[in-house]
C-alpha cells in the first residue's frame, strides 16, 4: 500500500478504530505486503454492534457523503438536512443488528436513509399548516419565459428550475415526491427505486405515473395563471 | 394538451437534475452524531438477539419432539396404540348410527 493509499485510509478511519477492530491487520507484515489498513464494512458493522463507536464513526466517514446528499434533497434547509442526516445515522445505528452481510452495507444504509426521509416527509406533511407556497414574481416570470422558449438551461435556469421543482414537489404527497425524486432527479432505475423503498416494481411504476400526472396538473395550474399565446 | 404539459414538466425536471447536491457533510457532523448517540445511550435494537433466540428455541423444540417421539416409540415399538385409534370413517359411521338410534327412539 503506497503512502497515498495509507493517508487516504488514515483519513477514512478515526483514531483508535484500527486498534479496536484488528490490530494485526492494521500493522500488516514487515515487508509491507498483505497489510490491509482498511477494515471491511462488515467488520466495522460487527465492531459497532458490539458498542464500538469509533467503528461506527469510520462507517460514517465512509458513507456520509451519500447520506448527506439524500438528506439535502429532502430536508429543505441546511439545518433540516443536518437533522435528517443525524436521524438517518441514529436509525442506522439502532438497526445495525438487522444488517445481513449478504448485501453491501451501502445498499442497506440507503434503504434506511430513504425510509427515514419518507417518514420525515410524512411527518412534515401531517404537522404543517396548509399553505400553498406561491412562486415569487421573479420565479413566475422565469417559468413563463423559459418553458415557452424551449432553450437549453443555463446556469441561472438550472438554479431556478431546481427551486421551482422543489416548490412543486413540496405541494405533493410524500410518496409522489419520493418516487419522482428518486426516478427523475436522482436518475435511479425503477428496480433500484423498488429495492430502496420496499415497494414492488409495479407499485413504483403506478405511483410514478400518478405522480407525474399530479405534477403536470400543478404545473398547469401555475402556468395558466399567466395565459399567453403558445402556452 | 397533457403531452404539452408533460414536455414542460420533463424539461423542468431535466434542468433541475443538472443542479448537483453537495455530498460534503458540515464540519464536525460525525462528532455531533456520536455525541448524540452517547447522550441518548441508544441501544442496538435486539433483532439479531431475537432471531438468535428464535432459532435456539426452534432447535430446542426439535430436540424435545425427537425425545418425545423416541419415548413413545420405545414404549410402543409396534405402534399398537396407534392401531387402536379410531379412524375417521368409524367416527363418522358411529355418529350416523347414533343418530339413527335416537331417531328410532323418538319415532318408533
Question: How would you briefly describe this protein structure?
Answer:
The complex is a heterodimer of chains A (231) and B (108). Chain A has 231 residues and is mainly alpha-helical.
What does this structure look like?
The complex is a heterodimer of chains A (about 230) and B (about 110). Chain A is an all-alpha fold and about 230 residues long. Chain A folds into two domains: about 10-30 and about 35-125, Orthogonal Bundle (Rna Polymerase Sigma Factor, Chain: A); about 135-225, Winged helix-like DNA-binding domain superfamily/Winged helix DNA-binding domain (Arc Repressor Mutant, subunit A). Chain A is built from twelve helices and no strands. Chain A starts with a helix and ends in an 8-residue tail after the last helix. The model of chain B has no long low-confidence stretch (mean pLDDT about 80). Chain B is mostly helical. Chain B starts with a helix and ends with a helix. The interface of A and B includes residues 64 and 97 of A.
